[in-house]
Design a protein that fits this description.
Length: 178
């Protein structure tokens, strides 16, 4: 794909104009970047996380989860959560096989979130709330937390459901599921 951008820019420079070639090259590169970033974002459930760590012989970070409470599901998002990956996020979460009482979304590896992803989170929260499921966000970094605060999901989810680490999130899940 990079070669296509290179060749397109080259031929536009030769046959048309350098300025036009740079503009088109930048646009094509931007689309290529967005495609790669959306492919880099992964969303895994707890079963996949445990299987992945066991298969490669590594122990999970911070002596990982001793247990996940009954009626609680855990998903982890790795990578930026922006409009390119927002559809993947929505697809994975809408295909939940069972409706748990609590859904923990672990976001420790999410460097940023955009408005499209926040709207998806709001919509998803409303769907789950109507079926009796609560959402807890875990490991949200300060920049993402600030964006959530500015855009509304912070107040919708509630301050007590956006937590710093997975251990606090599991304790909160136990409280909510009682």
């Amino acid at each position: 794909m990079d070669i296509i951008v290179l060749l397109t820019t080259f031929f536009l420079t030769v046959f048309f104009d350098l300025i036009l070639a740079i503009e088109i090259g930048m646009i094509l590169s931007s689309f290529l970047f967005m495609k790669r970033m959306s492919e880099a974002t992964t969303i895994n459930d707890a079963e996949n996380l445990f299987a992945e760590s066991a298969s490669n012989g590594e122990t999970m970070f911070e002596e990982e989860l001793p247990y996940i409470p009954i009626d609680t599901m855990l998903y982890e998002i790795n990578g930026p959560l922006f409009f390119g990956a927002s559809q993947k996020f929505q697809d994975v979460l809408t295909e939940l096989k069972q409706k748990p009482k609590v859904l923990i979304i672990r976001m420790r590896h999410v460097p940023f979130i955009d408005a499209t992803a926040m709207n998806s989170l709001k919509e998803f929260h409303h769907k789950l709330q109507s079926s009796g499921t609560g959402i807890i966000l875990s490991g949200v970094n300060p920049q993402v937390k600030e964006e959530l605060h500015k855009s509304g999901p912070y107040s919708i989810l509630g301050e007590n459901n956006i937590l710093e680490n997975i251990h606090k999130a599991i304790l909160r899940a136990e409280e909510v599921s009682k």
